[in-house]
C-alpha cells in the first residue's frame, strides 16, 4: 500500500541468493541505491495498515460483494474471488470484440 518500491523477505538463504541474482538482471546491483527513507516509511505504514484484521475483513467482504454483483450480471470471473482484482475471460464477456476475431483468425 505504497506508491513506490517494495521488498522481499525470505528465510531461505539459497532462495534469497537466487532472487538477488535475478534482481541484478532486472533492477541492477543492490549497491546501486535503494529507496528513500520516506518511501521505506510508506511501505512500513502500508504493511501495518494492510495487516489490520478490520481492514482485511472490509477488503474481503468488498471483493465478495463486487463478485456477487458482477456474476449476477452474467460476467464470468474466476471463482472463488480472492482479495485481488477479478480475472475474467474477455472473450466470453465480449464475443464480438475485434480482438476475439483476430485471435480466431477472422
Can you tell me about this structure?
There is one protein chain. With 106 residues, the chain is mainly alpha-helical. Helices cover 56% and strands 0% of the residues. It contains five helices and no strands. The protein has helices at residues 13-27, 37-50, 53-72, 90-93, 98-103. The longest helix is centred in the middle third of the chain and has 20 residues, at 53-72. The radius of gyration is 20 Å and the shape is extended.
Beta-strand content: under 5%
Number of helices: 5
Helix and strand composition category:
mainly alpha
This entry's quaternary arrangement is single chain
| Average pLDDT reading | 78
The largest sheet, given as strand count, sense and whether it forms a barrel, is: none
Let me know the number of strands. 0
Distance between the termini: 43 Å
- SSE order, as H and E? HHHHH
Percent helix range: 55-70%
Overall geometric form:
extended
The radius of gyration over CA amounts to 20 Å
- pLDDT below 50 for ≥5 consecutive residues: which ranges? 100-106
Amino acid at each position: 500500500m505504497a506508491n513506490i518500491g517494495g521488498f522481499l523477505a525470505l528465510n531461505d538463504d539459497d532462495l534469497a541468493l537466487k532472487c538477488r541474482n535475478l534482481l541484478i538482471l532486472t533492477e541492477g546491483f543492490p549497491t546501486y541505491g535503494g529507496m528513500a527513507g520516506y518511501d521505506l516509511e510508506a511501505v512500513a505504514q502500508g504493511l501495518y495498515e494492510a495487516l489490520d484484521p478490520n481492514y482485511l475483513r472490509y477488503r474481503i467482504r468488498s471483493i465478495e460483494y463486487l463478485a456477487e454483483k458482477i456474476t449476477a450480471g452474467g460476467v464470468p470471473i474466476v471463482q472463488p474471488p480472492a482479495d485481488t482484482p477479478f480475472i475474467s475471460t474477455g472473450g466470453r464477456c465480449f464475443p464480438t470484440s475485434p480482438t476475439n476475431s483476430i485471435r480466431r483468425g477472422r
